Amino acid sequence: MKNQVLRVDIFDRLAAKIKVHAARFIATVKNYFKHLLFPVYLFPIKLITYSIYYLVVFVIKLIFALISLIFESIVYPFKSLKHFLKSIFIAGAVLYMFVSLFVITDYLTKQYGWWGKFFCAVGIRDKLQNSVVRVVGGYSEGSGFFISDDQILTNFHVIADEPNPKIIFPNGKFVTPVKILGNKEADLALLFIENKQKDLVFPLPDRVSLYADEPIIATGYPLGTDLSGKATMLKGNFIDYRQSKKTPVSYIQTNISLVKGMSGGPLTDQCGEAVGINTISLAGLSLFITADQVKILVPSFTDQAITKIQVDPSISPEEAVKAFYTYLKARRMEDGFKLLSQEYLKKTNFEEWTNRFTDILDVDVIISRKYEDTEDTAFVKFSTKNWVDSEAEIHYYEGTWVTLKEDGVYKMSTSKILEVDNPPWDWFYE
Which of 103, 160, 163, 392 has a Cα at 20 to 30 A from 73? Predict the structure, then answer.
C-alpha cells in the first residue's frame, strides 16, 4: 500500500514538473513571437536580422563542432590501446564502404552507362521483343521498328527491288505497307501502314549522347524467317562515332556482331531509347546509323528509288498471268480479283477467294510464257513463301492458265497448277 502511494506521488511530481516546463516553454514562445511581430512596422527588419543572426550562429557552431570532431578523431586513438583498436576497426569499415561504393559505381557504369539508367532498365527485354518487327521482301529480309504510330523504319537494302515487302509483327500477324519512302544513299526506308500502333513506337531523339563504353542493345531477327521465335537482343558497348565521305550519315561503332536479318532493327540504350539503326557488320565490328541523323533525314525521303509494280494484263495471256501473281504478292487482292474471268467467278466470290491466300508472304514468278502454239494459254512457274505458325514455308508450282479476253484484258479462266516437290536446280532456269 505504501509503495502504491509512493508511486502515485512520484507520478504526480513528474506531471507537475512537465506542466511547469511546458508552461515556461509556451510563455517563452509567446514572448518571442510577440517581440518579433510587434511593432508591425519593424517586423521585416527583425525577420531579416534574426535570420542572419541564427544562420551565423549555426555556421559558427557547426565549424566548432567539426573542428572538435576532427580533434577528437585525432586524439581518440592515442587515449588507450582499446581506443586504438577501435579506431583501426572503424577506419577499416569506412575504407571498405568507400571501396564498395567505388565498385558499385564502376559496375553501374559498365552495365548501364550511368547510375540513372539502372532504374529504367527493368522490362526492357519485353519492350524490345514485343515491338521490333520483321520486314520480308522478295529478295531480302531484315528487321524494323516504329518511329511513329504508322511508320516503320528499316534499311533501304532490306526492301530494295521489292515494291511490296511484308511487315510481320511479334504476334505472327503481317501486313503490307500502303506507301514506301526512302533514301537509297543513306540506306534508309520508311514503311507506312494503315492501322496505328501507338504502344510500339521508339521516338527518334533530337541528339544522341552516349558515354564511353556505355552498354547498348541491338535487336532484330537473325537469319530472317529462316529462324523462328522472338527477336534477338545482342548486348555490347559503344566505342565511338564514325563518319564516311561515301555516305550522308554518321555511324555509331560498337563491338556487337550483327547477323544477317538484323538490318533495320533498333540500337537502344539500357532504357530502350533508340540511338541508332542496325546497318553494317564486319567481323565483330558493327556500324549503326545514328538516330538523330535519321530524324533529320526522314522529312526528305522520297519514292524515287522505290521499285514500282509494272504489269499490263492486256498485252498477252503470259503478261496477264504475271500480273495476277504480282497482285497476290503485293496483296492487292481487289486488283487480283478483277483478273478473274466471268467463267471463273461462277464458282467463287471475293471473300472465299481471298481466304485462300491469307498466309502468303511472297510470290516469285520464275517464268511466264506462251504455252506451245496456243493463243490463250500461258505456262507459269512460281514459288510462294507462306507464313504458317510463325514459320516460313516455301512451295513451288508449275502449270498452265487458260485465259479469256474480256473488256480488252486477258483474265484467268481455268488452271492446271501442280506443286513441285524439291525441284532440281535446272528447274529454275528452264
Answer: 103
Query: Per the omega criterion (within 30 degrees of 0), is the bond before 248 cis?
Result: no
Q: Which of 130, 125, 264, 267 is nearest to 200 (CA)?
A: 130
- Looking up cell 496477264 gives 320
What is the C-alpha separation between 326 and 95, in angstroms, rounded? 73
26: which 3 cell numbers?
509556451
pLDDT by residue (tens digit) across 312-368?
999 999 999 999 999 999 999 999 999 999 999 999 999 999 999 999 999 999 999
Domain ranges for the chain, please list them. 2-92, 124-300, 317-428
Query: What are the grid coordinates assigned to 122, written together?
Result: 527493368
Q: Does the domain formed by 317-428 have CATH 3.10.450.100?
A: yes
Helix axes 43-75, 2-37, angle to 10 degrees: 130
Could you give the CA distance from residue 231 to residue 328 in angstroms, rounded to a whole number? Answer: 28
Q: Cα–Cα distances in Å, from 179 out to 30, 164, 190, 238?
A: 78, 9, 8, 34
- In sequence order, what are the residues at sequence separation of 6 or more whose Cβ sits closer than 8 angstroms to the Cβ of residue 332? 164, 309
Residue 156, H or E segment: helix 156-159
pTM of the model: 0.73
- Residue 324 to residue 344: CA distance in whole angstroms: 14
Between CA 124 and CA 171 the distance in angstroms is 18
Grid coordinates of 193: 501502314
- Encode pLDDT of 89-146 as tens digits: 888 888 889 888 878 777 766 666 666 676 777 788 899 999 999 999 878 899 999 9
Mean per-residue pLDDT over the chain, rounded:
88
**Topology classification of domain 124-300:** Thrombin, subunit H (2.40.10)
Q: What is the DSSP string of 59-95?
A: HHHHHHHHHHHHHHHHHGGGS-HHHHHHHHHHHHHHH
For residue 230, what is the DSSP state? S
* 184 contacts 300 by C-beta, under 8 angstroms: no
Q: Are 395 and 419 in contact (CB under 8 A)?
A: yes
**Element (DSSP H or E) covering residue 345:** helix 342-345
11 contact partners, CB below 8 Å, separation of at least 6: none
Angle at 313 between CA 312 and CA 318, to 5 degrees: 110
Per DSSP, 222 falls in state T
d(CA 375, CA 379): 12
